Amino acid sequence: MAWEKYKYIYLGLLFAFILSSGLSFYWMTNLQPQNKPKISVLKQPTEEVFKVTEETKVILLKKNLVCEKYQLKCSVKETEMTVEEKNGIRGLNLEELQKKYAKENKTIEKSKDIINIISWENGLCSDHKKIWHLGDNNNGDYVAVYYGPSEVKNEGGIYKVTEIPVSKLPLQYQEKVRKHAMEFTQEEELIATLDSFSEYFGQ
Question: Which domains does the chain carry?
Fold first, then answer.
């Protein structure tokens, strides 16, 4: 019979058909580039640009560089800008304000609807200039009196250089003087200490 004679050929053709169909299905479903899902981009709300208006509160501050560097607690005086002064900056944004005051060594800080214009001055504030401490002079030879608390060392400025040689003091005082470790809040106490040091100098 024809079937018996050609059955292996028929089976081979059937197997080839099934294999090719499976490969075609796999290629269509897995090897074709997949369409990427569309990603919806949410637009961020545009931030309103700040500008100085009549309602903006502008505060003028004075701070000192040395006090700020050592984070000393100062009594900062605040003065609100007058209407006439504010007219000169009305309509300016933060960047424009910073450019305007940068030449005057001033910085700008913003908090909600309040603008702080900070004027920076060298040295210590008037409160911390009422504190003194002892150290050695630039050459390390003589006892010197410096403005400010001990931690600022010579950055607060020098009050005066005495004629008392550091080397003439007892070792414990020499160490304290060189470390700027003797601080005074009363001028009378400072004078009394220098007087006692002078006794060592006279010996």
Answer: 57-121 (3.10.20), 131-202 (no CATH)
